[in-house]
Amino acid sequence: DTAVSQTPKYLVTQMGNDKSIKCEQNLGHDTMYWYKQDSKKFLKIMFSYNNKELIINETVPNRFSPKSPDKAHLNLHINSLELGDSAVYFCASSQDRGSSPLHFGNGTRLTVT
Amino acid sequence: DAKTTQPPSMDCAEGRAANLPCNHSTISGNEYVYWYRQIHSQGPQYIIHGLKNNETNEMASLIITEDRKSSTLILPHATLRDTAVYYCIVRVVNTGNQFYFGTGTSLTVIP
Question: Does position B95 have pLDDT exceeding 80, yes or no?
Answer without folding.
Answer: no
